[in-house]
Structure formats: C-alpha cells, structure tokens
Amino acid sequence: MPPRCLLRPGFLGTMYRLFVAVLCSACGVAIAHSAALALDQLLPGAIVLVRHALAPGVGDPPGFTLNDCASQRNLDTRGREQAVALGQAFRQAAVPVQRVETSQWCRARDTATLAFPGLVHDNPDFNSFFAGRGSEPHSTQRARDRLLAWRGPGVLVVITHQVNITALTTIFPASGEAIVVLPDQGRLAVLGRLDLPEP
C-alpha cells in the first residue's frame, strides 16, 4: 500500500519535495532534512516534533529535580515569546492540532502550554536523556512506538529536546524548530522542517 500523502499540493517546488519524500519513505529512508514546509500544507495524521523554545545554556544545573522548575534550565523572555509565536502561527494557519504531548522538563512543558493551552499532556517517553538522565535506546524506542501508533484524525505535536529529535530523525534542530514526520509501514519518514515565522 503506498504511503499516505499528508501535505496539500502547492507550487512545483513543493510537489517535487513531496514526491521525493514519499518515494524515499517507501524505501525506508529518512530524507528532506532541508525541505521547508508551510504550515498550511499540514493535513490530519501528521506529526510535528518541536524542540523546546530558547532556554540559554546546556543541560541542567547541578541539583536538577524534575518537579522543581527552579532547579532547571528554563525559557528566557525570548523563549517565551518564541513559544507564543509558535502557537499563533499554527492557529493562523488553521492547523488541525488534535493533541500535544510534552516532555516533563519545565522548558518543554512551558513551551507547550504557552503555544497550545488546553491541549497539553505530559509524556515521559519524550523526556530528555542528555548527560545520562535516561537510557537513549529505551527512550528512543518508546518514543518511536508512540509516534508510529499515531493515526489522527488531527495533527500530533510533540514538544521535546534536541537529543530526542536527533535520535529519531538524525536532524539537529534549533531551539523552537519543528520537524514534520510521517508514520509509514513501521518507519518514521522525515518530510522536512516547518517554515515558522520569527517572533
């Protein structure tokens, strides 16, 4: 059975990128890392992986505690503005977001709640495993299983971390960057990066 098409057709360049994405996904290849996809091209059933918004620094301070935001690296003012702008962009494009799942880290949860209030659900499968805070193989497999089980009817948005997205897609996303993936016959096909406006 051919892969489902989850993007609305547009100009010729978009159609070419989609053709390559579907062709390569059928071969089990993650591709289109540099393709820029417009929000209004998303259709129900797609998955958007978002790295949390800007939180200056690397990792977390000594004494990190999952349930204590004061012990963590958090969004700064620009990061909060970035998260709000993310949600506004999705709403303006009328993207049919059905569910939002987030890492339990405060910077991820804050990104999710600022962008998509009322739709957010914690999912520890998307928690960071940076610096040995979890098992990368087990975390990635659980996350992949969750994504492959998604069938819509709307769009699933996942707010997580760079290491998680890189493990799933081989892409190293910037803060607040969004990657579109498509479950297809037991694999995750990468369709490209979302073209999001700057806050």
Number of helices: 5
Beta-strand residue percentage: 15-25%
Broad shape: globular
Which ranges are low-confidence, i.e. pLDDT below 50, for 5 or more consecutive residues? 1-5, 7-32
Class from secondary-structure proportions: alpha/beta
Strand arrangement, largest sheet?
1-7-6-2-5-3-4
Label this structure with key terms.
alpha/beta, Rossmann fold, 199 residues, globular
Describe this structure in words.
- There is one protein chain.
- The chain is an alpha/beta fold and 199 residues long.
- The chain has a single domain (12-194), classed as 3-Layer(aba) Sandwich (Rossmann fold), CATH 3.40.50.
- Helix content is 31%, strand content 19%.
- The protein contains five helices and seven strands.
- The protein has a seven-stranded mixed beta sheet with strand order 1-7-6-2-5-3-4, sandwiched between helices.
- α2 packs across α3 (106-115).
- Mean pLDDT is 82; it is low at 1-5 and 7-32.
SSE map:
Elements: H1 12-26, E1 36-37, E2 47-51, H2 77-92, E3 97-102, H3 106-115, E4 120-122, H4 136-148, E5 155-160, H5 162-169, E6 178-184, E7 187-194
Parallel strand pairs: 1-7, 2-5, 3-4, 3-5
Antiparallel strand pairs: 2-6, 6-7
Helix pairs in contact: 2-3
Concise account of the structure shown:
The chain has 199 residues and is α/β, with parallel strands linked by helices. It is built from 5 helices and 7 strands; from the N terminus they run H-E-E-H-E-H-E-H-E-H-E-E.
